[in-house]
Amino acid sequence: MTLAPNVYDAEPIPEAARAEIDRLLQSGDLFRYTAPQDAPVALLEREFADLMGVKYALAVSSCSAALFLSLKALDLPRDTKVLIPAFTFAAVPSSVVHADCIPVLVDVTDNYRVDMADFEKKLTEDIGAVIISHMRGHTSDMDAIMALCDARGVPVVEDAAHSLGTLWHGRKIGTIGKIGCFSFQSYKMLNAGEGGVLVTNDPDVVARAVIMSGAYEHNWKKHKSPRGENSSDLEEAFARWQNKLPLYNQRLSNLSAAVIRPQIPELERRVTDGLRNHDYVADKLNTSPWIDVPAALAPETRAPDSIQFNLVGMTDGETRAFMAAAKDRGVSVQVFGMHTDNARAHWNWEFIGDQGPLPGTDKMLMRACDTRLPVRLKQPELDFIAEALIAAAADVKTRASVAAE
User: Fold this and answer.
1) What does the pLDDT read at residue 6?
2) Which residues does 23 contact at the CB level (< 8 Å), separation at least 6?
């Protein structure tokens, strides 16, 4: 009997991290500002900025912290309305509330992306910023979004927690808006257990974010400037904001940076493996009449480590039966709208109040399935997952057909 693949363990941390971790443990210098210069967190920020092709990066305690600091760095007035997709993780509206702003949900379609008609309708004069969550790595129409927002002077923050390595017209997701935010949580392409980073080309944005992240006194001087560039713009920005901003202390530790840095050279391979695995399983799943894996948009090159698909022609009862049948075959499937208190179902975000009708999102959440697909899986494991899901759907529909006779 073939055992179900383990889809929960992350890839092992590269051996190169061990020596640096041991050095840090011997020295006790885990705080990013202990060393006068070149602390592991500062080096990580420079390396990540170079990886993304941007001027500045700030590593913080989580992607949620990065989103929160992004909104604070934009200097939005209290109670500013921030437009966000209705399909995202609860941390996104939470970061808006944390920043003393008001989240406004925009509908999404059955391909998990922003409904552009609803987006344009809700992008009113009282919207002060937009967060676009590339949820589960699915990129919304960034050409249309940026055109609308640029025309209105509304800054865009990209929540790219699931999208490190994704491209849009060959451009790196997270570098299209004014600020991009990424996650280092264990199920992401770079794994520190916890952690996040924001990137930008705006010196005032990064200066404000650095200070508010917890760079007290003059510790901002320990952040590294872009290579080969005059640092005067950044220094002047820091001088403008010194002692004028609250400190929220959302720093990343040197230990986390030591875990992340050796993984950066592994990113290209992980992205390649993840896309190959996803598309291999997607092609198999799409042979089932009861399963549909939405295609990528034409400008999008994805970097997935999970797979999402919609159940076709199934009732609520059949959808629940499908989850159970897949689990009996060794594959865990989450239907976003069918799990109690799921943090990705907007009706569980009671802290943001009534948002009005979101029919596209509501319909999608009741049939959209989510399955882990780590980049380390090999073809026999991918076959196991795909065949189990196809068989589960066929079993449910066969039983439904027999019961109807």
Assistant:
1) 92
2) none
